[in-house]
Specification:
alpha+beta, three-stranded mixed β-sheet, 4 helices, 3 strands, 13% strand
């Protein structure tokens, strides 16, 4: 009888060991979840499309605002044709009102691109 038990253990021991090795599922706690997704899996909308479009228009207009000089000013040997006051105001507004870093990066990129493009366009205040 003892021999039968050892024989059964050898035969079914592999099955018992395999049954005990289950994969552990990692739990997703609320603190680890993405903040842009709700519990049901839907995207959270933080601002409406109209608000986003208004911000876009404001920051593009701020990027076009340059204080340009009729004659370039030399500063430490570098000629300066204008000063981007709109970009500086825009940077302050973005850092103050946008709470998510990804949103701030987008607005900084928009401001920088529009400011660089508008340097070569005759737009701004000429002194």
């Amino acid at each position: 009888m003892l021999c039968n038990l050892l024989e059964l253990k050898k035969q079914f021991g592999i099955l018992v060991a395999m049954a005990k090795t289950k994969q552990k599922h990692t739990r997703t706690y609320a603190r680890n979840r993405a903040t842009a997704v709700s519990r049901t899996g839907r995207e959270k909308i933080f601002e409406s499309d109209g608000t986003y479009f208004l911000k876009l228009v404001v920051f593009v207009l701020l990027g076009t605002l340059w204080l340009k000089f009729a004659q370039p000013v030399s500063w430490f040997g570098f000629p300066i044709g204008g000063f981007p006051i709109g970009m500086l105001v825009g940077l302050l507004l973005v850092s103050k009102f946008e709470k998510y870093q990804s949103d701030r990066k987008i607005w900084y990129a928009i401001l920088l691109v529009v400011t660089i493009i508008c340097y070569f366009v005759p737009a701004g205040i000429v002194i």
